[in-house]
Amino acid sequence: MHPETPHLSILLILGIGVFGGILGAWLFQRMRIPQVIGYIAIGLIIGESGLKIIDASILPSLRPFNYLALAFIGFLVGGELEQKIFKQYGRQFMGIMLGEGLGAFLLVGIGSGTLLYLLTGEWIPSLAGGLVFGAISSATDPASTIDVLWEYRSKGILTTGLISVVALDDALALTLYALGTSAASLLVSGSFDPMQLLHTLGLELLGSAVLGLLVGFMLSMLIRQSRSPERSLTMLVGSLFLVAGLCFSLGLDVILCAMAAGALLVNHSPTRSKTLLKTLREFANPIYVMFFVLVGAQLKLDAMPGWMWGLVLLYVLGRSVGKVLGTYFGGRLGGSPEVLQKYVGLGLFAQGGVAVGLSMMAGQHLSEVQVFGDLDLGAIVVSTVTATTLLVQLIGPPSVKYAITKTDEIGRNVTEEDIIGELSVGDMLNADIESLPETFLLHDVFARMASDEQMTYPVVDPEGICHGIISIESLKALFVEQEIWSWMIAEDVMIPVKDVLHPEMPLSDALLQMRNLGSEESVVRAEDGKVLGMFDVSHVRRNLAQRLLRRQGEA
Amino acid sequence: MPPSGAQLLDEALSPERVFLTQARHKEELLHQLVDQMPISGEIQDIEALRAAIFLRESLMSTGIGLGVGVPHARISSVRHMVVAVAKNERPLIDYESIDGQPVQLVFMVAGRPDHQSNYVRMLAVLSRMVKDPETHASLLAASDTDSLFKAIRNAL
Asked: In whole angstroms, what separates CA B143 from the centre of its chain?
């Protein structure tokens, strides 16, 4: 085999993945389903459970890519964590995070432990399994939740709460996992390994956070010195490669690490980081698409015994109810507004990289614990978590959408550019205008201008075709030359139309054209040249500002 | 400080574009005036000027009264504003002036679309000039191109 073939095939897979993902997103968006499910569905089709274009032999080669994607996601999530939000809502968000994490831990732990006991009749592996399942279930996947929030341009207290909680609950999940697996090991082997506990807590949590803060600080100092946005972006992407690579090599939590870097940057260099994060968000989109396609591709659902599907359903049910109830009680205890108590839980169903990663680790730790014949507890955890990941990834994004729809936060995170992108010249033209015949004597033009408030007039021929405009500004030179008012006509002084606008022209193109021509006003003409109205840049800007305020509303 | 109308007329006028003629009707006179415009210098496309002049006349006559016509047009192929002056041997009835009087003196003005204020000042200074009784009389009394050119220069 040619030595370069594997690289080529990986690149081809990435290409197929991204384009397939886009196709899936397009299909699902037409059904008003969040695009992330489209990515995962395409992954399922081309992955382990489907056509096997991406199979087990390729997946290990793609693991670094997953790390990189998680670094981007973690960094962008961290970039949302501004200090002022924590000063304002810190206690409330912390209450919700503890509530939802512990809620899922308890319900899934008790439910799965009980089911395992009913199936096996042995309480020690059942309790150990319950502890591990409970710990894993507390993690939430920030990626798909954030993807839905961005897709629907959501903004408001719920959106802020969701981002903060999904960003922080990885730390809780890792802590619960460290405690849970230590307890499980103790139960199974009868020995307690405090070093293992310290290693997980110390290295994974503290180490990830410290490394992230260091990278964030270094990056912040570098972009403060940088004068070019392109160089800043290059340094940022380079840093994320470093974060992904170091976490991959050192076994650190890449999301936590990148999140710490993003949070430090946004709080240390708030102004410079804002545009940088916006650019990164656009840049990261294909990486997101591929990440979710790989999530789908990795799911291996065949050869699962029937009772394990029962465990899967119990896990999903317990986790969902635990998150909703935990959010409610945690929110109440933390003094959160009712909208957070009611809806944050619905936005926390998705489960992703952290949960799958923890299940893999549990798979190794618990592989010695035999449950059914040759099926060990480790294999049960891996298969169950994989299947639950698929289910919650399918119900998670629509739930997030439901929550932000109920709280009316959809479409509020818009910029003027977004609104411009949605409009055409026809939406902005002022149709309530008078035209002047081209043979109108200047005397009559001035009389008309004095009698109404219109500042600019299209000049038209007898067929109504517009050839130019007259504005008060353009007639300034004529104010003192009254002897010619009686014989000069509108056609003599009109400014020929050079910047023709049509109603279906995109607003962005029209504004660009006006800026290039240095014009403030222009006539909007139909295909046949007839006047439809005036396009006034200052009027358009005012209208855009009003639309922006209205769209952002109370957000 | 922008140039005055008199300065503009002084710059736009030259003796070779002031002439006496014997046109039988308005159209012939306008063609003669256009033909007197410099082809390669200030005006690059003489036919575009001809078309613009006749288009403007088709909208409304430029006979401004007192036997004077001021055909004018703005086209982008004009580099600098140019004026040509013709005195016809006989007043032309078909000029359809706003006061109904036949037209004998015609000032043709060609300007640029983007030099609106200079163009307007030029038309205004011509209008003022012909309305001055003394200048008006000396223009009509001119019997050769020299005296016609001098009568205009003296009025500035």
From this structure: 18
* B1 touching A (Cβ < 8 Å): no
- In CATH terms, the fold of domain A419-552 is CBS-domain (3.10.580)
What residue ranges do the domains of chain B occupy?
A: 5-144
pLDDT in tens, A438-466: 999 988 888 888 887 777 889 998 888 88
User: Burial level of B35, CB count in 10 A (0-12/13-18/19+)?
Assistant: exposed
Rounded mean pLDDT, B101-127:
89
pLDDT at position B88 is: 93
CA atoms within 13 A on the CB side of A20: 24
Residues of chain A with CATH 1.20.1530.20: 64-413
Q: Which residues of B touch A484 (CB under 8 A)?
A: 120, 123-124, 127
Instruction: Note whether A489 contacts B60, CB cutoff 8 Å.
Output: yes
Q: Name the token pair of B149.
A: 């050119």
ipTM: 0.88
Distance from CA of A436 to the nearest CA of B (A): 14
Q: How far apart are CA B115 and CA A9, in angstroms?
A: 65
CATH class of this structure's domain B5-144: alpha beta
DSSP line for A390-415 = HHHHHHHHHHHHHHHHHTT-TT-S--
Nearest residue, CB atoms, B127 vs list A439, A484, A491: A484
Contact with chain A for residue B113, Cβ under 8 A: yes
- Cβ contact A272:A232 at 8 Å: yes
* Partner B, chain A 336-395, Cβ-Cβ below 8 Å: none
Q: Which of A253, A283, A327 is nearest to A104 (CA)?
A: A327
User: A5-30 and A59-78 are packed helices; what angle lies between their axes, rounded to 10 degrees?
Assistant: 50
Surface of B (36-95) touching A: CB under 8 A: 56, 59-60, 62, 64-65, 70, 72, 74
Question: Best residue in A481, A486, A491 to probe B by mutation, most B CBs within 10 Å?
Answer: A481
